């Protein structure tokens, strides 16, 4: 409130349009948007999977993500890296350390997601709680996890630890593409393909789809519903953990107790944008959101970045209330 | 954190008594030495008082905590020197952590005013929180001297309890613009601001003063960690210098990401960026960084420098001397036998005396008549004074 008033009172321009900047920055924004969007998409998959199976928006997923960021951070720390100058590592060494951090981050996030499911949601399911109770519990679980981090690490961001500095590999229409962006986009796509294949082609994945489509019939057909639910949370957590490492590489000061909040909301937006409950929708929504956000920043300035993201969501939902692809997990094509 | 503490301890051990470290780098002007008539918290040692307290309110462990810590140690030093010299007048210092947040400050300041023993306060350090909490001080008639909040608008609310112990951004802004265009000879400048009261106000002052040399501008947010889009914009504008109007917490990763992207422009930050934490956070990206600051270098205040280092275990930082000066003024009032808020407010309002950093005499808005702006730069991973902007 305060904010808006001063914004007007200090005489600065309230809102600018700078289409020229978008023209100049178009490729830069697109490439950067793809790498940011990949991170959104990975996190969005967690929201979408859980929603598909339980019809629950797991608001604690942003904390599942930030726990992964801390997992990756302390892996770097445990490997002997400290805040300060970026070390010069050989390619082999770098890949080894990053792979290790990836595994730790995925495990931390995966474990966090499963614990949230066990502690917060399963008891409610046993008692047949109404959906609203789940939603409130999700928000509560989010706060609890955030405060655990706050008590443990305090309110400040962790100092940056980096293993590699981004370097330009090639340019597209004058916009540089860095090795970091390539790693993030490629690794995310590979992970999403794996997730997609797992859900659509394996026996366990068929179980997930069966529960998503009709939980009661699936149970009658011999699908272990509880196990499927746990598996869903686990997959979502693992993907969020991978996103966490990429995020930390992209924004090395990103490890802070509140650091997952905005990213989580954005990823949720991406999931809804693409069509919640739909794996490919999460991917598409994430990438679109990442790119459009950057365009928005170029046109309106950095202060409007987040607003552009959410306005996009509102506009899309007005015309396609179920999101761009708009299908649920249960109806996924094989 | 451990590593940082260790390096601080090492730093303290290896430093020489020669306080003018970094002087061999050819730094411009000599730091001012202690004025002969500067007010001393020790006074005559005969003061008597009892049951009065002063407060420090500001960030202690919150965001940008280092900026608050620098001030707090300056305050602590003044109170300690006062209490050691005046056995008959032990002033209690109470500390309140606002976390530097405009949302939290009003609640914390309400705690400050509800303690009847507190008759004067040093703070708040940041402009956003000062704006949010100013009316509460005003209501309680509690005098508060800010050693670092520089937003010019703060003095325009008609608060009678607000006093600023340094120049504001209406002074710093044009001075920074002058430094960037004349000393750094930049013809194209990008101004990037955060969303704080301080960042927005200062960016406007700098941008206005830069005029046609302002080539690009953009906004970032408090606690933002990824600056890729802004970096892209700056890179394509290809400026000679970048002025970041905000705090070190965002400035450090921003400078790093600019450096990664191959932006060679000189990085200039204001007082909110001028802290060792920036240098630590930005690493080699800070090598070519400059700072502007309405703060006076503490290098040549030998007594202050040494006592501070002994007490705090580290060298004085940005606004440590200003915090010390502000506290000294409040202590002088207490030494005169003032026991209540109204008395101390009146004392500060009519104060006219030399401090360590400058002469203190406030106008009816709580602004000082004569202030200075210094520039600093990074030399071998340490912030050293550069030149005074006149």
User: Which oligomerization state do the chains in this entry correspond to?
Assistant: heterodimer
Judged by helices, strands and strand pairing, the structural class of chain B is: alpha/beta
Query: Which sheet architecture does the biggest sheet of chain B show?
Result: 7 strands, mixed
- Backbone CA Rg of chain A: 20 Å
CATH class of chain A: Mainly Alpha
CATH architectural category of chain A = Orthogonal Bundle
Strand order of the largest sheet of chain A: 1-2
Give the topology string of chain B: H per helix, E per strand: HEHEHEHEEHEHEHEHEHEHHHEEEE
Low-confidence stretches of chain A: 1-12
CATH homologous superfamily designation of the largest domain in chain B: Response regulator
Q: What's the Cα radius of gyration of chain B? A: 20 Å
Number of helices of chain B: 12
Overall number of structural domains of chain B: 2
Number of strands of chain A: 2
Explain how this protein is built.
The complex is a heterodimer of chains A (334) and B (390). Chain A has 334 residues and is an all-alpha fold. Chain A has one domain (19-156, 164-328): ABC transporter involved in vitamin B12 uptake, BtuC, CATH 1.10.3470. Helices cover 72% and strands 3% of the residues of chain A. Chain A has 12 helices and 2 strands; from the N terminus they run αααααββααααααα. Chain A has helices at 2-9, 19-54, 61-78, 91-126, 131-153, 179-201, 203-213, 215-220, 225-250, 259-274, 279-300, 305-319, and strands at 168-172, 175-178. Chain A has a two-stranded antiparallel ribbon with strand order 1-2. By secondary structure, chain B is an alpha/beta fold. Chain B is built from 12 helices and 14 strands. In chain B, helix 8 runs parallel beside helix 9 (276-282). Chain B starts with a helix and ends with a strand. Residues 1-27 of chain B have low confidence and may be disordered. At the A-B interface, helix 1, helix 2, strand 2 and helix 11 of A face helix 6, strand 7, helix 7 and helix 8 of B.
């Amino acid at each position: 409130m305060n904010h808006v008033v001063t914004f007007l009172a200090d005489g600065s321009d309230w809102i600018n349009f700078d289409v020229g900047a978008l023209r100049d920055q178009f490729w830069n924004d697109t490439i950067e948007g793809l790498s940011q969007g990949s991170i959104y998409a990975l996190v969005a998959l967690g929201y979408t999977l859980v929603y598909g199976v339980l019809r629950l928006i797991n608001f604690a997923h942003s904390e599942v993500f930030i726990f992964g960021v801390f997992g990756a951070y302390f892996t770097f720390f445990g490997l002997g890296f400290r805040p300060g100058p970026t070390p010069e590592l050989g390619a082999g060494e770098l890949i080894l350390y990053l792979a290790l951090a990836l595994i730790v981050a995925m495990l931390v996030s995966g474990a966090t997601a499963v614990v949230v499911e066990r502690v917060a949601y399963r008891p409610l399911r046993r008692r047949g709680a109404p959906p609203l109770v789940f939603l409130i519990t999700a928000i509560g679980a989010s706060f609890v996890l955030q405060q655990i981090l706050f008590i443990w690490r305090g309110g400040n961001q962790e100092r940056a630890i980096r293993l590699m500095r981004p370097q330009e590999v090639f340019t597209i229409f004058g916009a540089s593409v860095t090795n970091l962006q390539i790693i993030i986009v490629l690794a995310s796509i590979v992970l999403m393909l794996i997730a997609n294949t797992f859900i659509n082609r394996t026996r366990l994945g068929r179980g997930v789809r069966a529960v998503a489509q009709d939980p009661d019939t699936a149970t009658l057909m011999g699908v272990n519903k509880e196990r499927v639910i746990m598996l869903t949370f686990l997959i979502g957590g693992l993907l969020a953990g991978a996103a966490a490492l990429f995020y930390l590489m992209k924004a090395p000061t990103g490890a802070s107790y509140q650091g997952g909040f905005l990213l989580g909301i954005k990823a949720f937006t991406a999931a809804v944008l693409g069509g919640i409950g739909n794996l490919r929708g999460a991917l598409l929504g994430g990438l679109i959101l990442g790119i459009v956000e950057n365009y928005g920043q170029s046109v309106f300035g950095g202060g409007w970045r987040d607003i552009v993201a959410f306005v996009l969501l509102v506009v899309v939902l007005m015309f396609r209330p179920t999101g761009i692809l708009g299908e649920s997990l249960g109806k996924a094509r094989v | 954190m451990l590593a940082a503490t260790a390096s601080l301890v090492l730093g303290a051990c290896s430093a020489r008594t020669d306080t003018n470290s970094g002087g061999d780098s050819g730094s411009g002007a000599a730091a001012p030495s202690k004025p002969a008539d500067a007010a001393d918290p020790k006074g005559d040692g005969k003061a008597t008082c009892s049951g009065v307290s002063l407060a420090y309110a500001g960030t202690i462990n919150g965001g940008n905590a280092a900026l608050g810590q620098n001030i707090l140690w300056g305050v602590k030093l003044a109170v300690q020197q006062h209490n050691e010299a005046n056995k008959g007048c032990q002033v209690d210092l109470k500390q309140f952590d606002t976390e530097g947040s405009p949302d939290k400050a009003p609640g914390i300041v309400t705690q400050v005013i509800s303690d009847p023993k507190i008759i004067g306060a040093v703070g708040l350090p940041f402009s956003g929180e000062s704006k949010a909490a100013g009316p509460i001080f005003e209501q309680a008639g509690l005098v508060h001297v800010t050693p670092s909040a520089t937003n010019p608008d703060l003095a325009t609310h008609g608060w009678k309890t607000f006093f600023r112990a340094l120049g504001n951004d209406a002074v710093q802004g044009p001075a920074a613009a002058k430094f960037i265009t004349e000393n750094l000879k930049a013809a194209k400048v990008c101004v990037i601001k955060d969303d704080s009261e301080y960042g927005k106000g200062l960016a406007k002052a700098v941008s206005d003063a830069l005029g046609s040399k302002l080539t690009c501008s953009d906004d970032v947010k408090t606690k933002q960690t990824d600056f890729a889009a802004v970096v892209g914009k700056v890179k394509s504008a290809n400026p000679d210098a970048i002025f970041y109007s905000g705090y070190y917490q965002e400035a450090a990763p921003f400078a790093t990401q600019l450096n990664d992207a191959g932006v060679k422009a000189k990085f200039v930050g204001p007082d909110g960026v001028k802290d060792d934490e920036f240098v630590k956070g930005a690493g080699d990206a800070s090598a070519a960084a400059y700072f502007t600051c309405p703060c006076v270098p503490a290098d040549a205040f030998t007594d202050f420098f040494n006592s501070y280092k002994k007490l705090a275990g580290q060298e004085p930082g940005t606004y440590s001397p200003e915090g010390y000066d502000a506290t000294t003024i409040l202590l002088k009032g207490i030494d005169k036998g003032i026991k209540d808020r109204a008395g101390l407010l009146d004392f500060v309002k009519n104060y006219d005396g030399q401090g360590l950093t400058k002469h203190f005499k406030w106008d009816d808005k709580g602004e000082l008549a004569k202030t200075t702006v210094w520039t600093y730069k990074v030399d071998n991973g340490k912030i050293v004074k550069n030149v005074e902007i006149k």
